[in-house]
What does this fold into?
Amino acid sequence: MGVAPIKMPQLGESVTEGTVDRWLKKEGDFVKRDEPIVEVVTDKVNAEIPSPFEGTLVKISVTEGTTVNVGVEIAQIETEAAAEAAPAAAEKPAPAAAVAAPSPAPSPAPSPASAPAASADGARQRFSPAVRRLAEEHGIDPSTISGTGEGGRVTRDDVLAFVQQGGTPAAAPPSPAAPGGRTSPPSGEESRPSSAPPRPSPPRGEGEQEELVRISAVRRAIAEHMTRSLATSPHAWTLQEVDVTELVKYREAEKEGFRQRHGFALTYLPFVAQILCEALKEFPYLNSTWTDDGILLKKYVHLGIAVAYPDGLIVPVIHNADRLGFTDLARAMNDVATRARSKQLKPEDVQGGTFTLNNTGATGSVASQPIINQPQAAILTMESILRRPVVIGEGIAVRSIMNMCMSFDHRIIDGQTSGQFVNWIKHRLESWTPSSLRL
It folds into this structure.
């Protein structure tokens, strides 16, 4: 028998770290080869990681909620196969100090270029890329924060807690040295020994009327992505009412037969998605990305479909959606949505999106202001379809009305272009007939 390490996989080309969200097995459990063993979250995907070996899980090296670099050992499995591959299994694991475990607490931190801080036992502490990046964004010196992670390591929660409690930014560089190498104190003042700012006391709760809920890795990844999007793109927003009465009649008449023929439900999503793909060909700036060198126009449509599931929201991508006929598009959308909710997506399923469509109407929403899925130029929502009285000519009729809302990057697109784009989709939906389907 031998012991083989399981390491944090690289879930995407640009992904350098991952967070252990939940262990599906515990120490002592027998694990089959390819059996899911742990849920890992990155800013790209939430995935169940299968075991590469069959054997007994003898050690969990990384606790839930902990972020580690790609390639760091997260567990060990005792297996006969490992004994045959002893040299590979004996490969030296990455130092445990590379781990950054989230859990709430306060304190400050040095700029990312600073030297590792000394921990309570005198060892030099290393900070994970996530901690260094977060500390840099807030101008905080992480070496002055008391970590609450394993072994006293500073976590992202420690940094955030320090910021929320009014943490002090990192001190400015020392004054230039006076002649003779002596540092000049501020004018009129004598040099005084420096001292670290006092650590803020934790907030006091209100007994049983308050509850602190641990932020899941999924929720944290969503929060960071949304915050980064708003900081990156100047968001603008538009809304259009769309009369989809004829489309509603067709779908109601066809939905049962469609389910019997294809084995899944016929929703409004593929109807709008097919027209949206055509619109993106007509308005290429909506299918683009802002770069320092210029606006990068995409000549293909990789359509992101926002999917809600109990842990949060994820956007799997239908690659080359513009090349698919209606039935294949509907099948592909059902497939990625089903796998997203069962956490079976692969890294490539969430990469490369050029535009995002979100069916917010499924939640009962009638208007929404979505946040752009970076680095895309816009995001479109379909709202609830409601029967409403509408003035038609000189009379009033009850029609099925759906609002469409779009947020767009105002660096790339102006109000006129965004209005033309949404109006183009509106016209196609309102004039829709069964012959409109591109099969």
Residues 85-124, 172-196 have pLDDT under 50 and may be disordered. The chain is about 25% helix and 25% strand.
